[in-house]
């Protein structure tokens, strides 16, 4: 036999053994890796079941795509802050976006449509990103430099 003939079967045998090893270890390895992470996370009417890759809104199963599920999960895991579009693209879509890209905006639009009357739980903070809010008036608004404070209202006249 030639050297090439000797190497070919050995490489394919090793490769198939490795694939079999990985496949046999996968079902046991995943639960151990996720063992310390919470299986369910919630915010307002939203509940995410991470172990079944399911999202619920007011106990109703949402038919989400993987991207929509991942976006919603990321937002629910970071409810206390505004998350920029660039961060969502990097952490969820695993890509860098040009400023004019609408990738995240389109998926958030689809997600809001599926949330129905709970769509306002995902608030857009203009010029900054997205934030989960209990009510639409809770979204953090960017501070305007030099904006005057509202004047206190005058007391009502007696009488």
General description of the model:
- This protein has 159 residues and is α+β, with helices and mostly antiparallel strands.
- It has a domain of 99 residues: Arc Repressor Mutant, subunit A (Orthogonal Bundle).
- The protein is 40% helix and 14% strand.
- The protein contains 4 helices and 6 strands.
- The strands form 2 sheets. The chain has a 4-stranded antiparallel sheet, covered by helices on one side. The protein has a two-stranded antiparallel sheet with strand order 5-6.
- Helix 2 packs across helix 4.
- The longest helix is centred in the N-terminal third of the chain and has 32 residues.
- The radius of gyration is 25 Å and the shape is globular.
- The N terminus is likely disordered.
The SSE string, one letter per element, is HEEEEHHHEE
DSSP summary, beta strand count: 6
Structural class: alpha+beta
Average of per-residue pLDDT values: 74
The proportion of residues forming helix, as a percent range, comes to 40-55%
Radius of gyration computed on alpha carbons: 25 Å
Please tally the helical runs, counting DSSP H or I stretches of 4 or more residues.
4
Please outline the major beta sheet: 4 strands, antiparallel
Amino-to-carboxy terminus distance = 112 Å
Strand numbers in spatial order across the main sheet: 1-2-3-4
CATH superfamily of the domain at 40-138: Winged helix-like DNA-binding domain superfamily/Winged helix DNA-binding domain
Give short descriptive properties of this protein:
4 helices; 6 strands; alpha+beta; disordered N terminus; Arc Repressor Mutant, subunit A; 159 residues; two-stranded antiparallel sheet
């Amino acid at each position: 036999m030639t050297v090439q003939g000797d190497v070919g079967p050995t490489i394919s045998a090793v490769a198939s053994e490795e694939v079999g090893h990985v496949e046999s270890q996968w079902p046991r390895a995943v639960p151990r890796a996720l063992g310390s992470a919470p299986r369910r996370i919630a915010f307002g009417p939203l509940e995410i079941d991470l172990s079944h890759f399911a999202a619920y809104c007011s106990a109703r199963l949402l038919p989400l795509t993987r991207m929509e599920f991942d976006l919603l999960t990321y937002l629910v895991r970071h409810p206390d802050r505004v998350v920029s579009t660039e961060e969502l693209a990097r952490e969820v879509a695993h890509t860098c976006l040009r400023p004019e890209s609408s990738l995240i905006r389109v998926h958030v639009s689809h997600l809001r449509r599926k949330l129905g009357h709970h769509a306002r739980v995902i608030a857009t903070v203009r010029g900054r990103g997205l934030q989960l809010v209990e009510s639409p008036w809770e979204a953090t608004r960017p501070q305007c430099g030099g904006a005057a404070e509202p004047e206190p209202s005058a007391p009502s006249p007696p009488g």
